[in-house]
Amino acid sequence: MSEPALNHFSPNRRAWRRFRQNRPAVISAYFLAGLLLAIIAWPLLLKAAGGGFAQIHNPNQLSDGQFLPPGAQHWFGTDVHGRDVFSRVLSGAQISLLVGVVGTLVSLLIGVVWGAVAGYVGGRTDGFLMRVVDVLYSLPSIIFVIVLITTLGELMKHLPLVEQSPALGRQIRVLLLFAGLGSVSWLTMARIVRGQVLSLRTRAFVEASRTLGAGTPMILVRHIIPNIFGVVITYLALTMPAIILYESFLSFLGLGVEPPMASWGTLISEGVAQINPIRVYWWLIIFPGGILVSTLLALNFLGDGLRDAWDVKGR
Amino acid sequence: MYFVKRIALAIPLLLVISALAFVLVHLAPGGPFDRERAPASPEIERNLNAKYHLDEPIWKQYGRYLGDLAHGDFGVSLKYRNHTVNDIIAQGLPVSLTLGGLAFCFAMGIGLTTGFFTAARRGGWEDYVGSFLSVLAVCVPGFVLAPLLILIFAVKLKWLPVALWGSPWHMILPVLALGLYFGGKVARLTREGMLQAMQAEFITAARAKGLGENGLLWRHAFRIAVLPVASYSGPMLADLLTGSFIIENIFQIPGIGVFLVNSSLNRDYTVVVGLSLLYAVLLVGLNLAVDFAYRWLDPRVKYE
After folding, report:
1. What is the pLDDT of residues A14-68, one digit of tens each?
2. Selection from A183-192, B72-81, B101-110, B214-223 with the highest mean pLDDT
3. B197 at the A interface (CB within 8 A)?
4. Span A65-77, mean pLDDT?
């Protein structure tokens, strides 16, 4: 559906207008912005408040109050070590979202460059690059991530630098997660970008630009990249939930981030470990799980909204 | 001809996968005998390594592995030394296949129905509720859903067993937890396919000839709408089989998924490579099967 009244706007401006009319997508965008704000503001608030309040809500502060149900003092209850679950969910969100964002950027970088080169250069290069993508598509990706991460994680442990400081080792592990997850998630992006570039390359305005003397870099920067913007941003929004899910999946299995660092996956797995027939500690699963699910939901709505706004065709 | 080519291409692909898995696990420091009960003396370790040919250069080991593989022998597990990898597969695979197969049927049943129904009631409240539920299903990972199901139906209401595998009652919760995500995916694909099909020209033609709305939906639109679902079903089945290890973990189900994670932590080289290869064969095989099915479902498709 194209609104005739909007035709004097550029395609990107028109897409933004359409996007703003999509209520679930806009609500999702606000939700994500709010979550981001909470993640950033909460530690600052604790630091500013100081004293007992900060002590109680410190995500790493152990206390005697084990398994307290949600209440006025601990909004999401406490866990097996008496730590405040609310603060832990927010600090877990830092890692989960960080891995999601950086992993997505890694996949963006590889996917766009790979696809753009294949589409623009064409010929034998294109054939080779796309064959590689086909092969990688038929790998059982999650298994390779598991094998890759255990292997590299084990290699890292023996670095002299890591042996000296375990904290550094944990951070390197998170970096590993970025790289590993990004490197298996760029395939769809590469295919989509290649298809777009292929069809753009022969369009009249690109030909016109070339006849006027524009070189390859000029055409790429002025015409190709602005025109694949919509597709790329849509797939970014759809790749991110997949990577967040991957990360929590791996952390759940104990292969992702290591304690005392927390991500949503490790929090949920801690909750699952406490399932017993006598007492039900539902808050250990509901709250981290609920935030994870709402974030994924918001990202999905956002992605769908962007796709509709830019009218991106499905795979 | 096309399929002969595809099958011929699958063999080098599987070789590449096995080589990649082989090199990756052997790259990791530490060997399979590091976590023995008593710390082995150097001689014992040397003998163990010699027995399992771990002292040879890696290309030689890989060659030996391929040779055994050609005879259908996946080797002996280095951790559970009285089990061969063939044993592990023979014990675990039927369980994983049952779980995956049931979840597949569940996902297809609920997904196709929901997708069809929401598309037929497009714009109505049923559409909104159904579509929301299918997005929700896609966003609730199995490791969140499974503990919730256990807490509600097993711990609180005590209707179903908490874990393990055996009677059909044991299967309900794992199948639900595993299948719901894919049900949501199938529902979304079906709905999208139906809506696209309803705009096709042959639908307009059929409508102009006076065919009723129900006939249109069933006889024409649905047959086109299942095509994207069919092409998704190959990777989906593979995902159901590979993705099941988290569910197997939570419900303590004796499938092969549990072995994969443990063996990769234990440096149990033969098991890791064997299982990776098994999954790769499943994935490649299922994708091929889907392409076959596609030709049969949609006669318009021609392969080069």
Report:
1. 778 888 888 888 899 999 999 989 888 888 887 777 777 667 777 777 777 677 7
2. B101-110
3. no
4. 72
CB pairs under 8 A between A and B: 115
With an 8 Å Cβ cutoff, is A255 touching chain B? yes
Contact A150 B264 (CB under 8 A): yes
HEC assignment per residue over chain B = CHHHHHHHHHHHHHHHHHHHHHHHHHHCCCCCCCCCCCCCCHHHHHHHHHHCCCCCCHHHHHHHHHHHHHCCCCCECCCCCCCEHHHHHHHHHHHHHHHHHHHHHHHHHHHHHHHHHHHHCCCCHHHHHHHHHHHHHHHCCHHHHHHHHHHHHHHHCCCCCCCCCCCHHHHHHHHHHHHHHHHHHHHHHHHHHHHHHCCCHHHHHHHHCCCCHHHHHHHHHHHHHHHHHHHHHHHHHHHHHHCHHHHHHHHCCCCCHHHHHHHHHHCCHHHHHHHHHHHHHHHHHHHHHHHHHHHHHCCCCCCC
| Distance of alpha carbon A97 from the chain centroid | 6
> What's the CA angle centered on A226, arms A221 and A229, to 5 degrees?
130
Find residue A84's DSSP bridge partners.
A78
Task: Indicate whether B106 pLDDT > 90.
Answer: yes
- Residue of chain A nearest B228, judged by CA positions: A315
What class is the B94-252 domain? mainly alpha
Q: Is A96 on the interface with B (CB under 8 A)?
A: no
* Chain A residues within an 8 Å CB radius of B24: 144, 147-148, 151
Give the predicted TM-score (pTM) of the model.
0.79
One-character DSSP codes across A223-235: IIHHHHHHHHHHH
Q: Do the Cβ atoms of B261 and A271 come within 8 Å? A: no
B62: left (phi over 0), alpha (psi -120 to 50) or beta: alpha
- Cβ <8 Å between A289 and B144: yes
Give this complex's ipTM.
0.73
The pLDDT-based confidence of B28 (bands split at 50, 70, 90) is low
Over residues B204-220, mean pLDDT: 78
Helix (H, G, I), strand (E, B) or coil at A61: coil
pLDDT of amino acid B230: 82
CB nearest to A154's CB, from B29, B146, B150: B29
Task: Judge contact between A116 and A194, C-beta under 8 A.
Answer: yes
Task: Parse chain B into domains and list their residue ranges.
Answer: 94-252
**Considering chain B, what is the average pLDDT of its residues?**
79
Distance of CA A21 to the CA centre of its chain: 25
Question: What are the chain A neighbours of B264 within 8 Å (beta carbons)?
Answer: 146-147, 150
Tell me the shortest Cα–Cα distance from A223 to chain B, in angstroms. Answer: 30
